[in-house]
Amino acid sequence: MKYDLSQSISQRSSGEKDAENQRIQEIAHELARRCRLHEKESEDCQNHVSPLFIEERIAEDYAKDMGIWIPMSEIISFGVPGPSGNENDIYVSEDTVFKVNNLLNSQSIISLLERIVFHNIIFPETFYYFIGFTGYEGRSIMPVLRQDLIKDAYPATSVEIDTYMSAIGFNKLSEGKYHNELFLVWDILPRNVLKDNEGDIYVVDAEIKHKP
Fold it and tell me: What is d(CA 69, CA 125) in angstroms, rounded to the nearest whole number?
C-alpha cells in the first residue's frame, strides 16, 4: 500500500487493533514486493500467466513460509457453516464469524488486504482480523478473516444507514454509496448492515476505495 494511514485510524482503536492493521499492511507490502520481483525476473521471458495467478502462487508460498497456510480440510473445524454471500463462505463459532473470501469482488489479494485495513479504520466496531490463507494447492487461494459475531441483530433500514453514515462523517452519493474526503464506500445496504437490540448499527461488509 502507498498510504500512510496511521493518523487516520480511529482513536477508538486499541493498541491490539492498531498492531493488526499494521500487520495486514506489512503482508500486503511483502506480497507486492514479491510480485514486483517476479515481474522483474521474468520481464525478458515470454510469460502468458495472468497477474492474479502469479499473485496467488506467491501468496501461497508466503503463507507456507510464515506458517499461516490452512488446509481446506481444516476449514470446517472453524465452526458451523452459516449463510454464505457472493464473496464469503461463513463459519460461525460461539462469538466469532470466520469468512473465507473467494476474491470475487476484489480480483486481487493485495487489494482485498488494503480494503480490510480501510474497513477497520472506518468501521472499527466490526474489525477484521486476518487469519491466513486456504485453498487448493497450486490452483486457488482464499484469504481467511475473522470478525466478532453481532448477536440478536437484524438488517438496518436505509434511513438508519443514512443516519449512521452521516454521523460518522460520510455524505450520501446514491443508495448505498457514500464518501468523505478520504474514502469512497459503497454496497452499504441492509444486507451488509446490522442493528442490534440496543439500536447500535454495525457495517459488517462494504466495498471501499481510498481517494487519490
Answer: 27
What pTM was estimated for this model as a whole? 0.88
- Inter-residue contact 141 to 110 (CB < 8 Å): no
Crossing angle for the helix pair 15-41 and 51-66, to the nearest 10 degrees: 130
Residue pLDDT, tens place only, 130-183: 999 999 988 889 999 999 999 999 999 999 999 999 999 999 999 999 999 999
**What is d(CA 5, CA 49) in angstroms, rounded to the nearest whole number?**
33
Report d(CA 60, CA 138) in Å as an integer.
Answer: 8
Contact 178, 164 (CB under 8 A): no
Say how far apart CA 15 and CA 124 lie, in whole Å. Answer: 12
Contacts of 53 (CB under 8 A, 6+ apart): none
Q: What are phi and psi of 131, to 5 degrees?
A: -95, -45
Question: Phi and psi (nearest 5°) for 205?
Answer: -155, 150
